[in-house]
Design goal:
CATH class of one domain: Mainly Alpha
Strand order of the largest sheet: 1-2-4-3
Number of strands: 13
Distance between the termini: 34 Å
Number of helices: 22
Largest sheet: 4 strands, antiparallel
Radius of gyration: 28 Å
Structural class: alpha/beta
């Protein structure tokens, strides 16, 4: 099925091409028509003529099939009003399509690097955005038809593991595992750090243990594996609680790339890219300078011959291109790491490890702030744990449900409270432009009104209640979409725009493009529901409106699922 947007844009491109090959038109929803065509001013400037005259010339070359009215507005915008027959065909195709008009793309392999907690440390609010945004992008790419390879690049290697293993031995393995298995990762790490800072003998043992770990001592490696496995099991519990699709098998941490680092150094040297600077081995990629205008180094091997993040990130690029055959690599990591990744990508391309045919992008995001607009922390100043966030949101959702009339039993209400809590947390993140900071405000996020996840869930549940009141299964059969009421047409225009919303979220790597669309669709449905009776309407209007309700419910459910949010049938 060709979407409304694609059908119109394709014709507009051909009309622009007739005047100037390569001109770039665009479409957006219009208040005065159904769509507004932009790009005429740029075309007029290139042709050296008045924009309204250019708009008239575009119209002469534009295929107007399916367009009821065209208006040249302002300095040269084209307002396009679609025919009801065209919308009827589009809506009928949506009803018959389980993908709701979203085409299945070609077979591409997309590697998405996201979440990335540290072993022996609990997941906290600082991991929220990477985890939620990365998971939404993974779901969107899978729906498009891509082969998604998730990579959870956990911190599972390095000098801290000396003190962690020694602390494990001091506690006794059984007691240590018991502590880790109940999720007390922060307590375990904190106690190890206190001993390391206060006890010189412990410090010496820890340093010796690092040497043993790096040299491959079997018993040390076994103890290290205990720490990693217990931590990964705890991470998996957090992901299950949040309904995130990451699995233990997706954990590919620093330790995986460690054996590859010497080859990275050797091959960079063979390519003539390595430079010794201050005892360290560096690459100076073109175009990167410090504040004084001096070339900026990417340190591959430190002066003590240890390897930093740059080396493992370069090894990861090589692995993802060479072994995973990635067509696209996405790094869902905070904005402060922007320059680091730009330099890693530049070095990987200079070394020939990252072909121009592979899209490699840093999916940057802002911070989660508290009500005081500072970094979100507990009242005591500690970092907020993810599992505690979900627990508090679930408690508030449960309290909100207790005030509402419901036929749900206690078990169903517990499940629903968890679904609402997840929706509140995820939607607040995913409805924000990912590059901006946002304030974490559970009172607002858990509300059933406004631009929130629970509001969208409630809109879907209200739609499904219409069909429950039918008292029988409903088959739309053949539906004629007359769209006589303005609210019906307004809702229909929102429904046919779903493929464009999914495409926009994918192309821009901005899930909020889909979130914003779903909120707009829910508002269109509310306006429709308030002015257009459904079950009491006479036939064939009743069937037409039921079909619009069915399409809206399906669109909300599918759209929310692509964001990792449940769409309950009852609330």
């Amino acid at each position: 099925m060709t979407s409304t947007y694609d059908a119109l844009l394709g014709r507009l491109v051909r009309a622009f091409d007739a005047l100037l090959p390569g001109a770039d038109p665009a479409l957006r929803p219009s208040e005065r028509g159904d769509y507004q065509a932009n790009g005429v001013m740029a075309l007029a400037k290139a042709r050296g003529e008045n924009p309204r005259a250019t708009a008239a010339a575009v119209l002469e070359n534009l295929d107007l099939s399916g367009i009821a009215q065209v208006e040249v507005a302002g300095p040269g915008f084209l307002n396009l009003t679609l025919t009801t027959a065209f919308l009827h065909d589009q809506l009928g195709a949506l009803l018959a399509d389980e993908r709701l008009g979203v085409p299945r793309g070609g077979a591409r392999t997309t590697v998405i690097d996201y979440s990335a907690p540290n072993v022996a440390k609990e997941m906290h609010v600082g991991h929220l955005r990477s985890t939620v945004i990365g998971d939404a992008l993974a779901r969107l790419h899978r729906f498009r038809g891509d082969t998604v390879v998730a990579r959870n690049h956990v911190g599972d290697w390095g000098t801290p593991f000396g003190m962690l293993i020694e602390h494990l031995l001091d506690l006794g393995e059984e007691e240590a595992v018991a502590s880790l298995s109940i999720g007390d990762l922060d307590g375990f790490y904190r106690d190890a750090r206190v001993k390391f800072d206060a006890d010189d003998a412990f410090k010496e043992r820890s340093r010796a243990r690092v040497v043993a770990l790096q040299s491959g001592d079997p018993e040390t490696r076994r103890l290290w594996r205990v720490l990693v496995d217990e931590s990964v099991a705890y991470f998996a519990e957090v992901y299950r609680a949040l309904d995130v699709t990451l699995r233990p098998v997706d954990v590919v941490g620093e330790s995986y790339y460690n054996p590859m680092l010497e080859d990275v150094v050797r091959d960079l040297d063979a390519a003539g890219l390595l430079v010794e600077s201050g005892g360290a081995l560096c690459v100076f990629p073109a175009g990167f300078t410090n504040r004084e205008g001096e070339p900026l180094p990417l340190i591959v091997q430190k002066r003590d011959e240890g390897f930093g993040y740059a080396a493992s990130d370069l090894a990861a690029v090589r692995d993802r291109v060479g072994n995973l055959h990635a067509d696209e690599i996405l790094y869902v990591v905070g904005a402060p790491q922007g320059q680091h990744f730009e330099m890693v990508f530049a070095v990987a391309r200079a070394a020939g490890w990252l072909p121009d045919t592979v899209r490699c992008e840093h999916v940057a995001f802002g911070n989660v702030l508290g009500p005081d607009r500072k970094m979100f922390k507990t009242r005591s100043g500690e970092t907020v744990k993810l599992i505690d966030l979900l627990a508090e949101a679930t408690q508030r959702a449960s309290a909100a449900l207790a005030t509402r009339a419901s036929t749900l039993d206690d078990d169903e209400r517990r499940v629903l409270a968890t679904q609402i809590a997840r929706a509140a947390i995820k939607y607040a993140d995913l409805s924000t432009d990912r590059q901006r900071d946002y304030v974490f405000d559970l009172d607002r996020m858990i509300a059933f009104e406004g631009d929130t996840g629970p509001y969208l869930q409630y809109a879907h549940a209200r739609l499904r209640s219409i069909f429950r009141r039918l008292g029988a299964s409903w088959d739309p059969g053949t539906v004629t979409f007359v769209l006589a009421d303005a609210a019906e047409r307004h809702l229909a225009l929102g429904l046919v725009a779903f493929p464009e919303a999914v495409a926009a979220a994918l192309s821009s790597l901005q899930p909020h493009r889909l979130s914003g669309y779903l909120f707009d669709l829910a508002q269109r449905f509310t306006a429709f529901y308030e002015s257009c009776p459904v079950l009491t309407a006479p036939e064939p209007t009743r069937t037409e409106r039921l079909a619009l309700c069915e399409l809206t419910a399906r669109t909300l459910a599918l759209g929310l699922s692509l964001l990792g949010i449940d769409a309950p049938d009852q609330m």
